[in-house]
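User: Can you predict the 3D structure for this chain?
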Amino acid sequence: MSILRRAVICLFISAITIAAHASNAIEVPRGSAITLDGRISDDEWSAAARQELVGGGEVRFKHDGSHLYIGVRGTKQGWSHVYVPDGENIYALHASAALGTAIYRRSGDAWQPVQSFQWTMRDRSMSEQAMAARESFLKSTGWVASTNGMGAGNEIEYKISRSFLKGASPRIAVLYASDPKSPQYWPGSLTDDCLKEKLIFGTTPPDLKFNTAVWATIEFK
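Assistant: Here is the predicted structure, written as structure tokens:
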């Protein structure tokens, strides 16, 4: 193959990659803080950007300068994952009847678990004690979410510290599941092991393949 032909092919591939990345970018508007109660009300989330989940449901995004808010609505009662990379690790933020964080780190050509899900935050109430516990969890982990028994049953709200999201335009992937074999997800380009059945179910299988290049990019307005 000639040098010129190789250069043309490389430019073509680069153009496709750039276009794919641009199509996955989402501008997240600034708005007021939410009440983390598992209810995605139109009044509270009116200023949010909206995206459809592949397979049904939707996800909404907004921020208040200090935190990113993500509202995930499925078609049935279920649970949610938000995936966040920091350059070295990939964090799986799981919200179901409890909250848990799994951490993966690259080893060779695959990602291996360095922290399994540890389940906590099972109190569904809006008592002062429960809200204080959620605030403490947020400070210690960088994120917190409602659980799937708190509100509408098919709606989960996340609150993620901006300091937890690395870089000016962090990448992210979101899914919702009532059946781990057929999750709803965003962005539509997601094809990697974020969709792995065992991971969605709440275990930490080894040798996963993550491709953050096909995840979405968050642009804070």
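The longest strand covers residues 99-107. Confidence is low (pLDDT under 50) at residues 6-22.
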